[in-house]
Structure formats: structure tokens, C-alpha cells
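Notes to self after the Tuesday call (sharing in case useful).
The group wants a holo model before anyone commits to mutagenesis around the pocket. I volunteered. Ligand is magnesium ion. Logging inputs and output together so the record is complete.
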Amino acid sequence: MPDSSDLRNYLHKLRNIGIIAHIDAGKTTLTERILYYTSKIHRMGEVHEGAAAMDFMPEEQDRGITIASACCTCAWRDYFINLIDTPGHVDFSIEVERCLRVLDGAVGVFCAVGGVEPQSEAVWRQAEHFGIPKLAFVNKLDRPGASFSRTLEELRDILGVRPVALSMPLGEEDRFEAVIDLLSMERLDFAVQGLGREFTSRPLNELEASMAAPWREALLEVAADEDDLLMEQYLAGTEPSPEALKSALRRATLGRRAVPVYAGAALRNMGVQPLLDGILDFLPGPDEAAFFETSTSGKTTNSLRVEADPDAPLAALVFKIFLENGRKLALLRIYAGQISEGMPCRNNTRGQAERITRIFRLEAENRTSLSRAGAGDIVAAQGLRSVITGDTITSGASSLFLEDILAYRPVISMVFEPRNNGEGEKLDEALERYTLEDPTLKVEVDETSGQRIVSGMGELHLEVLRDRIRREYRLEIRAGNPQVVCRESVRQSAAAEGVFDRELGEIAHYGQVRLRVSPLERGKGNKIVNLSAGTVCPASWTAAVEQGVETGLDSGVLRGFPVQDVLVEILELGKREGESSPVGYHMSAVAAVKSALESASPMLLEPIMHVEISVPESFLGAALSLLVSRGAKVEDVLDKGGQKYIRALAPLRELFGFSTRLRSSTQGRAGLLMRFERFDAI
Ligand code: GDP
Ligand code: MG
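Result:
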């Protein structure tokens, strides 16, 4: 056993965190400041110059949204922070989910003018679902219309959390001049020179103290609720020690009973350092992180706690893949055990033996080669040839799968056509690479037309892919209209028989199957039941029938989409002496399923999306009528402080171009969130 004490020490000084934010809230600007202050980046790139360190793909800089999730290690005090960039757009929600899984804590960035918007609300709720403790950074306090207290109210009302301000702005909008640290009760002034890297602190004057008093009071109250001794001191009006306050607030944050909030303006270099302190003081290390649940069969989910122990068997999740000069670089979150250079391991998801050849720590401007890395850490590894995003790496054969690979459901597809054959090859190469990086993309070749059909999670997802192909491969491709990916099911029961009776390579193959298909409740999946126990036959025949049924259900009789929510009862097998064979039973079962589906009143199920819109009251009518014109069913309209929230269900087919229309009919004031809900008939 190698000496793991250094890995163990490192584990206690580590934070794996992500920043979640609505587009434009200032995530990139804040990240730049963090990287700059933690001394790992020497020139600060502003977003509008298109040079930010984390947003390195060209179309991200163009669009100003973050698609890739990179990881960057930086140092603050004597700690290390792995900063994981989470995408903010819902079209990539699987990617968001995977990123959330590898985080131990998160910082929500909110614009002090726009407040809690639907997109950030969605990601915030996902983080809540994974049990991730969070901090909030209220950004852009220098902007006209900014309000710190209103943003805190929204955190309470919309997100349902108990916000506790750890810092507050002194002045708002163009009078935002300094930050008050509510823990030390000091005024922090950020230097104009040196981009705010330096700041000075001094005790509050009388006016400042009176402004801070109610916020300080609120902070003491949250701490007192965590700790009896603090409660006694609070009631007696005695000042608690800063250490006791910190540890009570830490407990409240880890227990998700409170969310520490920091005030600032990233663009003005104000208020970022206190937030960095907060990440260390209040967010968990890998050893204190939330209970981690894993799927242990790839299909059923069993919760299993993977201890962050460097001496345990290896368990690591590949959460991002990059290709560099044809070489794969896999970003790994190591949950347990350790990896070292040259170490043999296993891609458990694909059942492949593998070897890690090199290990790197990624920093903003360079990468450091490591000889090994241990539980809790996030590093990049080279040498894993079979991996794709979402795979689990273990030391040997194991029943552990850290991600459910069946969770992806592409809902939209497009035909991608090259201009000529020569470009076809290049296009295939590009598509191969992108599907490797992103398992929510699927590429199929239509057998009859030879067309390449690309499916993904949404319109924007495929649009971004086209952009990348154009930029990175210099390929102009023609793309067909987007098509929704459907499922098929049946409305009633029907029985049918399938017979196969042919000679293949001079051997007779015979099979005869009678079966019945019936509808199951929506979302139940398919079920196959064998009722043919009366027929005495070898197990290989019944196995062949069941496989044949599955093959038959892979493509329905209407438009060839997979069949779902169908019960198949195998009623009877017919046999013929000397000629019955597994091939015969497989083929006859496929035929029987097809024929039964035909008679069972087959139906199409289309992707139904959950749509959430937030609009100021004056645009409520416009948003509602647009929804209704798209065949949506409005479920709920809520009022949150004058802002209206609409929740609706709508078929994806009707939602192409919806966000553009919504923007123009609400003068850009609406927030939109869409996510796949289920396949259903409408
Ligand atoms: P992201 O989409 O969340 O990554 O947001 P960006 O960091 O790209 O910021 C969006 C826009 O807001 C950019 O034009 C920034 O310059 C601007 N911005 C970011 N932080 C602040 C701030 O504190 N104050 C002001 N006034 N503008 C800001
Ligand atoms: Mg950004």
C-alpha cells in the first residue's frame, strides 16, 4: 500500500466547486477575477474582448454563453479550489447534471438588477436535488436598478432558501463604493489599480455601522439557530467570537439550512475576495460532501456511499473528454482510491482494460504533470482509449457505475449533408469526435438514403454543433429541418402469429410464435412475459423468442421509432421436428410483434416539453397567447413580487423558433426554460 498521507492531507485542503448562473449574470467575469486573484492567470481578459480563459471555444466567445465545462485549479490561502465550469443553458441539461455531480459545493451568481431568473433557478434547483451546499454572489451592484435587498428577497421567495448576508454593499448603483464585511464588521476598499487585487480594510464609522446593524443582526440570528451557546449569547446581547460564528454558519450551510450571500460587482473588481474566503469557510471539502448515490447495475439505482478514501478501491467518473491532436484527455473526478502514471485500470462501463499514461492538473494558463492523484480530486488523464463522457473507471471488475448511461434521450434530429463526397469523410470524422465528447449526441446513417441523421437535446444543441463543424473543420454543411424524435405505442390489445420457414445455407429453420401486445401506462417502459410454459422446448428457443420480441420493439410500425409502454405476452410456440431453430424463433417473433403492433391501433408519442416562462406582468398576455398558439397546455401562473411565472406543457414539434418569437413579443424581457418531460400523445 503506498503512503497516502499526502493525498489525505490534500483532500482536507480541497474544494470542488462550480458557478451556476443565468446567462449574462457575470459568471465569466467573476471567474476571470477569481483566476486572477488566485495568481494563476496574469492577464485578465474581459468578456467583451473575447479572451476569457474558461470560455475557450470560439462559439462560446461569440455567443457569450458557456457550453464546455472545463476545470481549473487555483490556490487561495493554503487551499486549492477546483473550479468547474458548468454550462448555463438548459439544452445541455445532462451536461449540467453531470457537472453538478462532480461538485461538492456551488456558487450561484445573480444579477442585482435581474434577480433570480428562470435559467439560474432551474440549475439551482438541480443543485438542490443533488444535495449541494451553496453560496450566492449578488453581482452588478453598480448597475442602475440594482438592489441587494430585493435580490435577497427573491432568493427567499423564489428559491425558498434562507439567505444570510456575509457582506453587503455600501451604496448601490453608481454610488456603490465599498463592501462591508459583516463577519469582521470592517469596510473593504478595493484598489482601482491592479484590478482590485489589493484591498484595504478599516473599522466601520458610525454611519456605516448603523447601516450594517440590521444585516449583522440577521446573521447572528441564523448562527444562534444553529448553536445553543450562541443563542444564549444572542439573547443576552453578548458578541460571539468570530470562530464560533463561522463554525455555526458552516454547519447551517452544509445542512442547507442557510445560504451565505456576498455582495459585489465583478466588473468593478469589488467583493470577490470575501467570496473566495466564503468558499473555503463554508463550502464542504470532498470528505464532507453530500451522500453520493450510484447506480450499481447500470439500470437500477442503488444508493451506495463511496467514501473519499485514497486507500479504497478506485472509483472515478469521466465527466468530460477533450481531443488534442488525436489524443484523448479525460477529465476525471476521483471519488475513491487513487491513480498513478502508468497504472492499469478498467473502463467499467465498457468492460475494457485500460492504462493511465499521464496525469495533469489543469490551471488557467498551463498544466502541471502529476505522478499520482487521489480521492476527492479532479484531474485530467491521458491514455484511456475506450472512454467516453459518463464512463466509470475502476481498478478491476466491479458492479459500480457512477452514472446512469440510459438517462439520455435525444429529442430532436436533423439531416447533416456535406457538399460532396470528399467532405463527407471529413464530416464523419468531425461527428465521430463530437459524439465522443458528448454522449447526448447521436449519429445514425439512414439505410435507404445514406443520409447522416444527427440527434441531440434541443435546437440550440444541434446549432452549436453546426457552428463547431464550420469553425473547427471548415465545413459548410447543409442541414435539414429539425425533426422531433418520437416513440411509438399502442392503444389496444391484439394478438398475432409469426411463422418463419426457410432454408438458410441448406439448413432448414423453422419457428412459430403466437403473442399478444397490450398498452401499459405511460412511462412504464416495455414488459415481456412468457406464458408459453405449456410448450416443452429448449431454453435457447425461448431466449431467441425474447430477443426477437426486443428486436421487434426497437422500431415501430408507423415510422420506425422505438416502441414503449407495451406489454408483450408470449402465448404459444409451435415446433417442427428437426427444423425448429433459434434463428427461426427469433425471426418469427420479430414478425409476430410487427403484425400484433399493426392490429393494436399503433400511435405516435412525441416529446412533450416542460416550459417555464417568467415575464413582467405587462407581457403576461403576450406570452400566454404565444404559448396557446403553439398548442401548449398552461398548468400554472404564479406571481412572485410582480413578476409572473408561467408553467406549461407543450409538444416540442411546436416549439421550434419559440425562444426567438418569445423574445420579440416581450421585448426581450421574458426568461425561458425548457426541458424534456415525457413522450406522450397530445
Ligand atoms: P456570463 O454570461 O454569466 O458568463 O456573464 P459575463 O461575465 O459574460 O457578463 C455579461 C455582461 O455583464 C458582460 O458585458 C460583462 O461585462 C457585464 N458584467 C459582468 N459583471 C458586471 C458587473 O459587476 N457590473 C456591470 N455593470 N456589468 C457587469
Ligand atoms: Mg460566460
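Two things stood out.
The pocket of guanosine-5'-diphosphate (ligand 1) is lined by residues 21, 23-29, 47-48, 64, 139-140, 142-143, 265-268 (CB under 6 Å).
The longest strand covers residues 602-616.
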